[in-house]
């Protein structure tokens, strides 16, 4: 044990230290004569046990023990006093000392008290180490909030929503990744005005096993502060990205960000199903028209087969102010579900998309940008809802396909619907 002896009288201190000499389990002894040096040495040397006289000065032994116990994790203290009053024993325990010994104290008794205190200190410290290790490992496996933007109908505004959501969340100071899983025709990078040199294709061709640091080398940083893993540059490359590849990308990317937003193609296919399964929330982007609502119904039916929890699926009604004789409330009634957010139609949307700009950032005062900000608020900021993370293997893709996800199985390039 590492011992700190804090006793005011030099004579008594020297006698105590002499008495402890030659004990194999006492590794080192530091001697101090006042309370200030005691606190300073305790913080610096981090002893296992402190042996302290109650008549220390300027602060007495009780106060000094209280002070040190609060500052030095896992330390144990033993007080010594000449003629202690009964109340002193209570006080010793109250300030966090292990024991109060009456001077003169027998060597055997003193050693036993110090050893017991050292034992307690070891116990406290290993618990602290375990807690610290758990905190570190939890940080290493930190899992992002995972949001997949999907619809089975093309052109509903998935890419518009995904890109602006990524930017809006990044604005809150969160670390955000945007993954373009529209592997054949993904245009998120174009919508963001980025010219990627490397894509998900290059990543999975080059590596089967990689960590976040390597994955990030294949991402492009958007000036708004989020990172993008772009879709392949050429449609034929999409075929060579296997389901297992997508699984690894999803596994790794979620460890490094607060949010991962995934853009998708307008159909179900195994690689998309995998992302839908993995997601905490699926944003179903729909338009205010009959075909869109029909598509939504089919999606709900398919996802019903996957037994996803209700709160996982959120309807985003895009172009919700279109004058097509259909009201949002009618759609809600028809589907028996609430629309989570609405976005207006605006000529500013294609304008921004075509010039590679984010509407939310370049035209923040337009109606549709304010609606986008509301959508961002569903997930980011101080009052965002908690994330329900389905862990039951009886839901999702496994259930739909009637088997476990197969990490080694490839996937065709096109959808099953
Ligand atoms: N609220 C809106 N107001 C006006 N135009 C919009 C709106 N939302 C999307 N658009 C336009 O609709 C077109 C399709 O949008 P977007 O590319 O985001 O859809 P998508 O669902 O990703 O399409 P795809 O299925 O082809 O990937 C774009 O030209 C976009 O500018
Ligand atoms: Mg798109």
Beta strand % = 15-25%
How much is the average pLDDT?
88
* Secondary structure: helix percent: 40-55%
Oligomerization: single chain
Q: Architecture of the largest domain, CATH level 2? A: 3-Layer(aba) Sandwich
Q: Give the class-level CATH name of the largest domain.
A: Alpha Beta
Structure description:
- It is a single chain.
- The chain is α/β, with parallel strands linked by helices.
- The chain folds into two domains: 2-135, 3-Layer(aba) Sandwich (Rossmann fold); 141-401, Rossmann fold.
- Helix content is 44%, strand content 16%.
- It has 18 helices and 13 strands.
- The chain has helices spanning 10-20, 35-45, 61-71, 86-94, 107-140, 158-171, 188-191, 200-206, 212-217, 235-238, 243-253, 270-278, 290-305, 328-335, 348-354, 359-362, 367-379, 397-401, and strands at residues 2-6, 28-32, 49-53, 76-82, 99-103, 145-150, 176-180, 220-221, 227-229, 259-263, 281-287, 313-318, 339-343.
- The strands form two sheets. It has an eight-stranded mixed sheet with strand order 8-9-7-10-6-11-12-13, sandwiched between helices. Strands 2-1-3-4-5 form a five-stranded parallel sheet.
- Helix 3 (61-71) links the parallel strand 3 (49-53) and strand 4 (76-82).
- Helix 2 runs parallel beside helix 3, helix 6 packs across helix 17 (367-379) and helix 11 (243-253) runs parallel beside helix 12 (270-278).
- The termini are far apart.
- The relative contact order is 0.11.
- Residues 382-393 and 400-417 have low confidence and may be disordered.
- It binds adenosine-5'-triphosphate and magnesium ion (MG).
- Adenosine-5'-triphosphate is lined by residues 154-160, 182, 266, 318-319, 343, 345-346, 349-350, 353, 368.
């Amino acid at each position: 044990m590492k011992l700190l002896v804090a006793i005011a009288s030099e004579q008594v201190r020297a006698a105590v230290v002499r008495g402890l000499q030659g004990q194999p389990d006492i590794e080192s002894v530091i001697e101090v004569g006042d309370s200030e040096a005691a606190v300073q040495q305790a913080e610096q040397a981090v002893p296992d046990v402190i042996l302290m006289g109650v008549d220390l000065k300027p602060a007495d032994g009780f106060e000094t023990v209280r002070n040190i116990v609060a500052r030095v994790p896992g330390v144990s203290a033993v007080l010594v006093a000449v003629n202690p009053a009964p109340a002193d024993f209570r006080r010793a325990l109250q300030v966090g000392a292990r024991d109060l010994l009456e001077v003169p104290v027998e060597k055997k008794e003193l050693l036993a008290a110090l050893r017991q205190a050292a034992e307690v200190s070891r116990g406290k410290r290993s618990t602290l180490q375990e807690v610290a290790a758990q905190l570190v490992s939890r940080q290493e496996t930190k899992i992002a909030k995972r949001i997949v933007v999907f619809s089975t109908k093309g052109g509903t505004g998935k890419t518009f929503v995904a890109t602006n959501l990524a930017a809006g969340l990044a604005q809150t100071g969160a670390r955000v990744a945007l993954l373009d899983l529209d592997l054949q025709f993904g245009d998120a990078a174009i919508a963001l005005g980025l010219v990627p040199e490397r894509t998900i294709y290059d990543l999975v061709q080059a590596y089967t096993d990689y960590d976040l640091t390597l994955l990030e080398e294949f991402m492009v940083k958007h000036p708004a502060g989020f990172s993008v893993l772009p879709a392949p540059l050429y449609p034929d490359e999409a075929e060579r990205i296997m389901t297992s590849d997508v699984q690894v990308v999803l596994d790794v990317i979620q460890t490094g960000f607060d949010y991962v937003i995934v853009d998708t193609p307008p159909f179900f296919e195994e690689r998309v199903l995998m992302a839908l399964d993995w997601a905490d929330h699926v944003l179903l982007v729909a338009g205010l028209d009959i075909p869109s609502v029909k598509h939504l119904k089919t999606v709900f039916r398919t996802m019903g087969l996957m037994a996803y929890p209700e709160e996982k699926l959120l309807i985003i009604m895009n172009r919700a102010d279109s004058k097509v004789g259909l009201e949002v409330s009618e759609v809600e009634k028809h589907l028996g579900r609430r629309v989570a957010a609405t976005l207006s139609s605006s000529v500013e949307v294609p304008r921004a998309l075509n010039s590679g700009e984010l509407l939310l950032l370049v035209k923040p005062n337009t109606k549709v940008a304010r609606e986008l900000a509301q959508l961002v608020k569903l997930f980011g900021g101080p009052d965002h809802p908690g994330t329900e993370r389905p862990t039951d293997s009886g839901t999702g893709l496994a259930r739909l396909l009637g088997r476990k996800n197969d990490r080694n199985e490839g996937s065709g390039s096109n959808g099953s619907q």
